[in-house]
Structures are given as structure tokens and as C-alpha cells.
Amino acid sequence: MTQLTTAEAARINRQNRSSYETGLGDRVRALEGESNIPTGTEAQVPICAADGVPEPKTVSGDLTNNAAGAFTVGNDKITEPKLKIVNRDLTIAAEGTSATVTNAADINGFIGQAHFTAASADATAVKIDSVRFVPATGALTVTVSAAATAETVVRVPVIQAA
To answer: Which of 24, 95, 98, 161 sits a CA distance of 20 to 30 A from 41?
Structure first.
């Protein structure tokens, strides 16, 4: 570990608008002098406590890991009742470039595989630019690359709330 001069530490403090010595320094000093992560911590991950000092913790519950670093989701931990995926159709009006639906009680997120429905009149003329979900408001918005010449429906697979 490189020692900083007082002038270097002051410069870093000014740039970061925080105290290098007390902020980063305490966390680094917690591991200083250790040539390796302590033994007996195989298959653990470092988690910082409220004091900012990292401690090895075992991952348990629905997700576990091994000493090789592989994470495993337990059997029947993510099942259809827990992760219900349904389609939500968003209709973009003729001459429009986006559509939004808000349903905070119904949607937890989306899977990024949005596509035009087979019946969409303008599906070959425009491309899907983005799909955005805002959890705080429940707003699901789809935006296309150009104004649709006719009403166009974009189907978005969503994750429903349990």
C-alpha cells in the first residue's frame, strides 16, 4: 500500500469533497496487513457492515454459492406463482411514437423481449427503440423509431405482482 503525503491526501480530499483518511482509509486499513482474505471464508462474499468494514458472509436462502464462485438458485425457489409472466399490449396511435400504461398494482417489471403483434399495421416500417418501466409510478412506456403510419401494437412481457 502506498503512503500518501499530507499534501496528496489534502488534494484527494478536495477533489472528492470527503475525507480520504476517514472514508476510504478506514475501509482499506481494515484489510491492511492481510496477505490474503482470511482462511475459513471459502464460499463467502464480503459484505460491509454499518461501520464500513467488510466481513465475509455466507450466502444462504433461495440462493447459495460454492468455493468456486458458482451461484445456484434452489429447486422450486423461482416458480410461476412467484414469477408470473404475462403479455401487456401497448397501443401506439397513428402518427405517435410512444405509448404508456400505468398500473403500479399489477406490474413488477418487464422482460426485454418486446415485439410487434402480428396484426400491427406498421410493424415493418418502424423499430422498437426502448421499453422503460418506472417502479415508483408503475409506468411502462414503449418508444418506436419513427411515427407510426397506423395504429401499432407492441407486446411487452411483464412480471406481474404476486
So the answer is: 24
